[in-house]
């Protein structure tokens, strides 16, 4: 697996270097000025120096997942179909990014994005059930206790977790290197968990995604030379959820992505407070922009949230060890 990781990292880094050097100079990345943005004016002010930064670096991640899954299938004679389903997240993200770049409108609407994620989550959940990769038993961290629920209820809950994970990583991707830093740590946890549980397919996926994350992070760390866009962030969040569901530890999503979920909750809290009381809880939502507005540097936000994620992954691993006695 170390070779897959190394090649994934190398391929991503080389592709993005060419991508930045060549495509960022074309009209493809030029925003038209006559289309309004859904972004708050205060966020635009914070990031006005990033207006010329190209996006859609997540294309590299999707290409890596596709190419290496095909290569793995040729080498072993066994195709990991779930990896191709994960690319649906990338396709949806690409459509969103493309609409923004071409200035048809400011991306897909929140309702369209939610509907798309639900459809993709449902397709993947049905496949996982049909292939016998998951059961209806929900394990609880640390205790070893579990509940066995109705397959329809379980399926609906899995779709909810997939949508939550993908959307929360997407929301967190607002500061240079933040979402990638968090996800690179989470994929290490998933890789270790998959190795311990002898889940070879998940281990392969985690290794590939780890290489893609680090390869993209080379160019996305502060100051970013490229953004991964929804093309990358939706894929990352979706992959994390699906891999943990495949390992039959779905509740661990809440632990390892606690930072991203809090970011999502900060948006919900802000909108609810504005609607009900016409008052702001945060200066800007999501929370990482609140910290920016409070004077935090982007690198400090990324480092702090990454440390919290690392601690959360250690806790998640301890919780898994106690459940599986490994």
Terminal CA distance: 21 Å
How many separate helices?
Answer: 13
How many whole angstroms does the radius of gyration measure?
Answer: 19 Å
Order of secondary-structure elements = HHHHHEEHHHHHHHH
Mean pLDDT: 90
The percentage helix is over 70%
Question: Biggest sheet, strands in spatial order?
Answer: 1-2
Quick rundown:
The protein is mainly α and 326 residues long.
Written description of the protein model:
This protein has helices at 2-23, 41-46, 58-76, 81-102, 110-130, 151-172, 178-196, 200-220, 229-246, 252-256, 258-277, 287-293, 298-324, and strands at 137-139, 146-148. It is an all-alpha fold. A two-stranded antiparallel ribbon has the order 1-2. β1 and β2 form a beta hairpin. The longest helix is centred in the last third of the chain and has 27 residues, at 298-324. The protein is globular and about 50 Å long. The chain starts with a helix and ends with a helix. The model is unreliable at 30-38 (pLDDT under 50).
Layout of secondary structure:
Layout: H1 2-23, H2 41-46, H3 58-76, H4 81-102, H5 110-130, E1 137-139, E2 146-148, H6 151-172, H7 178-196, H8 200-220, H9 229-246, H10 252-256, H11 258-277, H12 287-293, H13 298-324
Antiparallel strand pairs: 1-2
Helix pairs in contact: 1-3, 1-8, 3-4, 3-8, 3-9, 4-5, 4-9, 5-6, 6-9, 6-11, 7-8, 7-9, 7-13, 8-9
